[in-house]
Amino acid sequence: MLFKYRAIDKDSHEREGTIEAFSQDGAVAELQRRELVISLLEPMAPASLLDMEIPFFNRIPNKDIVIFSRQIATLFEAQVSALRIFRLLASEVDNHQLAKVLTSVADDLQGGSPISAALARHPEVFTPFYVNMVRAGEESGKLSETFSALAEHLDKSYEVTSRAENALIYPAFVIVVFFGVMALMLTLVIPKISAVLIDSGTKVPIYTSIVIGLSQFLVSYGIFILIALIAAGVYVWRLGKTAEGKLVMDGLKLSIPYLGDLYSKLYLARVADTFAAMLLAGVTVVEALDITASVVGNSVYQGVIAAVESDVRGGSSISDALGRHPEVPGIMVAMVKVGEETGELGNILMTLAKFYDREVSTAIDTLVGLIEPLMIVLLGLGVGVLLAAILLPIYNLASAI
What we know:
The chain has 401 residues and is mainly alpha-helical. It is 75% helix and 5% strand.
């Protein structure tokens, strides 16, 4: 909910603006935390339905965070103050939701909050990885380098993830079109054609009888099948929102032939890249493992990294802890062991992340190269068989007349 406020800051200057909070008490608490004396606070009703914020349409794309990180790195290099940077970027970004977040961060900075703490108040935008990297940059005095590294990391992660997702869009689209075309033919076209065969009393081949029977079944019970599919989809969607359901679905994702291997390499690249970035930024091993587990994006690997963190806390080496989990390949365990022995764990993990990134890119290129002709052949073959099962008996009937 959006509130309009007018207040006096600690320097006796009058300030006014808007603040978003779940309730009026929450808005009061937030303004008081900024050391403001409130003179006016009232809710702002949306002017129309178009002004209302819908989370799906107001989400902040990852590419906007990448661009923002590059811009802030450049401004830090130009010796611009942090407060001025966030004020400037808030007025320049195109994404309205990101502009609101940056304005809130700037208000926190003006109230004396560190950058990392101000960013941490917006977990829907800035992940624990992002916040801890900034905190490490603050402690080392290298914020410009930190934001540049963040932009590079996010850009690479976004590119790899996008390629993997886009590679699956085409086959998913073709499969949906295939079943859609088959359903339309079986419910609209085949019944009219099969009526001719049934009225003629001609004996039809077994495969034609199967197609006619399937068509009649869909015409009679298609609506119930559609309702069942929708109900199953809603059930799976709701199941995916629970921790247990997400674990099961993430496990199934990794067990799919070929695609499971692709996803596994994608998550391993993310683990290695995130862990390396945290270590090179000066974050402790235990904290780096904790953050890596929270941003890996798969419940199975999240559980693996959490177990590794627990073992490391208990005195185990990282390589030994990783070696206890079959989800982690031997090459990763061996390279981590070398990194521990040489004291170059961060650099070796970065090399490993680049290796897995290349593996993912190669697997995606191979997948796309195989899927495109395969889907076209299957689509043509399915429709062709369906038509042949009906048209050939009609052709034979016409020839006999």
